[in-house]
Design goal:
Length: 169
């Protein structure tokens, strides 16, 4: 007898912690949808305790505000640190030029270019933050028929409704 579970042939029940579902919101939308589809593929083997349902609805609203606050604070802090550092470096490098360290002029220009390269990298980070926010907006939106795009929430509701049906039988 093998110690491994054959997910195709064995009888089993999967029980997820609430955070499995809540953390799907933190991944890029496409990746979350891929993981959600894997979960759905085992739908008949999943049991969702009522506590998971309750915790999901209690904590779901915090996802947006917490994530947006953390992202905005991070963006603000990084920009502040970068701008202060850039200003100080540029001032010191110009000071070196002014007092006659002509041999380092090429190095000063190289350092200034490096600062600009870092700024470009920070712009990439800002775009990633923006993309994550847009991904959260995808979850909040509605399709053309007015149905929620929040596939995670819809799956939780489906589990809860199916559980209610099973209890009635």
């Amino acid at each position: 007898m093998s110690d491994k579970i054959d997910l195709q042939n064995d009888d089993f029940i999967l029980v997820f912690d609430t955070n499995v579902f809540l953390h799907l919101y933190y991944y890029p939308y496409d990746e979350s949808m891929r993981m959600l589809n894997v979960i759905k593929s085992y739908y008949d083997s999943i049991w969702l305790p009522y506590q998971v349902y309750e915790e999901f609805y209690r904590n779901r609203p915090k996802i947006d505000s917490d994530m947006f606050k953390k992202q905005d604070a991070l963006k603000k802090d990084v920009s502040k640190i970068f701008n202060e550092t850039k200003r100080k470096l540029v001032d010191k490098l110009k000071e070196c030029e002014q007092i006659g360290f002509m041999t380092i002029k090429g190095h000063v220009n190289g350092a200034l270019q490096s600062i600009n390269d870092i700024q470009g990298g920070l712009q990439v980070i800002e775009e990633e933050i923006k993309s994550t926010k847009e991904g959260l907006e995808n979850w909040k939106g509605k399709d053309q028929q007015g149905n929620s795009n929040d596939k995670i929430k819809l799956l939780i509701e489906q589990f809860a409704n199916d559980e209610k049906d099973r209890e009635k039988r």
